[in-house]
């Protein structure tokens, strides 16, 4: 690949927009560059479930000829999660058992991106039924981390993290109900932003969540920079944010928080908090000693909302799906679903609430929370064994609490503090109250500058 094309594949969206608008490059060149990068990386990372090569090039030609260069995403190649509907495409959720869901129109988030001038060049891989942190499934196979293919890319928006992290996509969009944007961003060395659940219209995306966890689900971008995350969010959100007029605010530091971190992550977190206090943020401490109790309630609510629908989706008209029969099939080497999804289903008899009253008692106890994922990308198979084991897990309490409280949350890579043994970057997250997104982006830009 030439130096020119390599630079195009690594510049952020705002930088590329500048190049497009002053005529230094074209939409066709950008699409060709990123399609080439996906093709070169595909055998190693397997991040794309469908590539729109010819369609994307035709759209790029039209934009170069007749397009409005003032569009906020003019000519930018992007990717979308496989669970986001696109006209003429099927949502399979990576499952061979689930009946595919055919879409005759684009999901609203996709419509807004293309109306703003973005060009969708690929759909991205996920875990089966989008419910584990390892993006592997029976239909499309396993997505590998672009920084180290022996490691996971995260999930459930793992294909997006891998495409953006490998330079195959300028940005991507995914969904996050338990860290599914921020985990892949953290593992693949990119920025990931999970908005408040009501910020981005979810029409046309899978699944439709109606139970107690409906406020946990947010749709948002994975990008090459914080300013790109703000750009994409302002296109897909119902209410775009104005730039913050203040460079200071209140920084809440948790006390008594159930949190475990690898040393490089702790060093990056210290640098991030120091940068904000030096910027003028007021540091306050708050007691989060009950975070462990809240964390233990998460699988109860997830299973209450999803277990019955999983059984329905995996059943055929002739036979109801049985997790215990599936366990036997997996033990003899004849699985029909992903082992990570099966882990969820096997804990249901113990964890699933027995009554609506029990669910209401849990949801009434929502409390406060703060940032960070406590580990670097583990090797394949390790993430599910860590994240789906019983008990309080301090490596995951922080990012799940962002969903528990429906807080906007952004993950920022820390390349300056990469792990000496693996070369992998830590990731630092900051959260805010809904409505304070402008302040969040401003703080994230301060952190990004210090950590990179």
Structure characterization notes:
Strands 1-5-2-10-12-11-15-16 form an eight-stranded mixed β-sheet, sandwiched between helices. A two-stranded antiparallel ribbon has the order 3-4. A two-stranded antiparallel ribbon has the order 6-7. The radius of gyration is 21 Å and the shape is globular. Mean pLDDT is 90; it is low at 1-7 and 358-372. The chain is built from 17 helices and 16 strands. Helix 10 (291-314) crosses helix 16. With 452 residues, the chain is α+β, with helices and mostly antiparallel strands. The protein folds into two domains: 1-289 and 366-452, Amidase signature (AS) enzymes (Alpha-Beta Complex); 294-361, no CATH class. The longest helix is centred in the last third of the chain and has 24 residues, at 291-314.
Could you outline the blueprint of secondary structure elements for this entry?
Elements: H1 3-10, H2 13-21, H3 27-45, E1 48-51, H4 53-66, E2 77-81, E3 90-91, E4 101-102, H5 108-115, E5 119-124, E6 136-137, E7 141-142, E8 144-145, E9 148-152, H6 158-165, E10 171-176, H7 182-188, E11 191-194, E12 218-223, H8 226-236, E13 250-255, H9 263-279, E14 282-287, H10 291-314, H11 323-331, H12 339-346, H13 348-351, H14 356-363, H15 382-387, H16 397-404, E15 409-413, E16 427-431, H17 437-451
Parallel strand pairs: 2-5, 2-10, 13-14
Antiparallel strand pairs: 1-5, 3-4, 6-7, 8-9, 10-12, 11-12, 11-15, 15-16
Helix pairs in contact: 1-3, 3-4, 6-7, 8-17, 9-17, 10-16, 11-12
């Amino acid at each position: 690949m030439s130096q020119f094309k390599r630079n195009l594949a690594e510049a952020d969206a705002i930088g590329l927009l500048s190049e497009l608008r002053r005529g230094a490059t074209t939409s066709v060149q950008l699409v060709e560059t990123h399609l080439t990068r996906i093709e070169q990386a595909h055998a190693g990372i397997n991040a794309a479930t469908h590539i729109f090569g010819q369609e994307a090039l035709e759209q790029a030609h039209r934009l170069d000829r007749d397009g409005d260069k003032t569009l906020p995403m003019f000519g930018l190649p992007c990717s979308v999660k496989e669970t986001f509907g696109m006209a003429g495409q099927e949502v399979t959720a990576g499952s061979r058992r689930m009946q595919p869901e055919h879409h005759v129109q684009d999901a609203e988030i996709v419509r807004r991106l293309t109306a703003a001038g973005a060009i969708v060049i690929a759909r991205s891989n996920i875990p089966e039924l989008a419910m584990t942190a390892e993006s592997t499934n029976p239909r499309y196979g396993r997505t590998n981390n672009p920084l180290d293919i022996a490691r996971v890319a995260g999930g459930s928006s793992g294909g997006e993290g891998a495409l953006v992290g490998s330079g195959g996509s300028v940005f991507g969009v995914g969904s996050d109900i338990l860290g599914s944007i921020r985990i892949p961003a953290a593992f693949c060395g990119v920025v990931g932003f999970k908005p408040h659940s009501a910020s981005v219209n979810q029409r046309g995306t899978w699944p439709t969540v109606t139970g107690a966890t409906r406020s946990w689900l947010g749709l948002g971008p994975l990008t090459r920079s914080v300013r790109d995350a703000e750009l994409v969010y302002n296109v897909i959100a119902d209410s775009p944010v104005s730039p913050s007029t203040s460079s200071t605010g209140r920084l809440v530091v948790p006390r008594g928080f159930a949190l475990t971190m690898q040393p490089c992550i702790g060093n990056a977190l210290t640098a991030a908090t120091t940068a904000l206090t030096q910027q003028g943020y007021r540091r306050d401490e708050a007691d989060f000693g009950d975070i462990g109790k809240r964390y233990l309630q998460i699988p109860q609510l997830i299973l209450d909302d999803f277990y019955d629908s999983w059984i329905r989706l995996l059943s055929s008209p002739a036979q109801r799906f049985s997790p215990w029969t599936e366990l036997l099939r997996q033990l003899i080497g004849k699985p029909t679903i992903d082992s990570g999804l099966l882990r969820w289903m096997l804990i249901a008899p113990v964890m699933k609430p027995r009554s609506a009253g029990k669910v209401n008692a849990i949801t009434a106890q929502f409390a406060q929370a703060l940032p960070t994922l406590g580990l670097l990308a583990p090797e394949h198979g390790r993430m599910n064994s860590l994240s789906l084991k019983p008990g309080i897990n301090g490596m995951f309490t922080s990012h799940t609490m962002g969903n528990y409280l429906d807080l906007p949350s952004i993950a920022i890579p820390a390349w300056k503090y990469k792990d000496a043994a693996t070369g992998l970057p830590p990731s630092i997250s900051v959260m805010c109250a809904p409505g304070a997104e402008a302040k969040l982006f401003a703080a994230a830009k301060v952190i990004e500058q210090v950590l990179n």
